[in-house]
Amino acid sequence: MKSDVARAYFWALLDNATSLVEDAALLAERSPARAQALLILAYEELGKADWVHEAFWKSWQSGRSAALVVEPLSTGARHHGAKYLSGRDAVGVLYDLPIWVTFDELEPLPPESRPGGVSGDFRVETAAIRDRVAASANDAKQRGFYVDVTRDGHIRTPRDLEVYDLDEHRGHIAAGIVYLIGADQELVTRRWTSVEPADEIRLRADAHARYDDF
User: Fold this and answer.
1) According to a count of CB atoms within 10 Å of the terminal CB, is the N or C end of the chain lower?
2) Residue 41 and residue 47: Cα distance in Å, rounded?
């Protein structure tokens, strides 16, 4: 992927993630499970944007135009769990959203394995827990859109799905979008000849971001 194409793709992904947040806000009251599914999709788009940014920010900063391979896009673009976890990790600079896994479900870290000086109940996400988080998010996304029937004949519809606090969920992903735009502006200092949509996307996302998340 060439540098200028990657730059346009980065903004298109953030624009789409923000649009998904906006659509989720419109559906929150009438169709909460579908709204939640859109927020999960927004995390996936943010995850792809973070992959692109990680691969290209130095080229964008220096003005290099050489094409680069965004390896995660090659290996994980069709893997919904990988995209979701990438978006979740990108938002990881904010407080942890207790969705799909609670603090009590995390793996306790023995005192001898903790960083120096850390005390108290210190827990970490193992690879198995991350896989479970990704699977739970993907299941909630699918259940927000589809009707299915279980092997024992129980019909499941989006109306049956338990939904996490949509205001907090929406505020978290929106804050993550704002954060990534801010990080880009801190890292990428060269001037672009074309007008970029950073301010417009940030304002739209900021309308939904919860400031407690920053």
Assistant:
1) C
2) 10
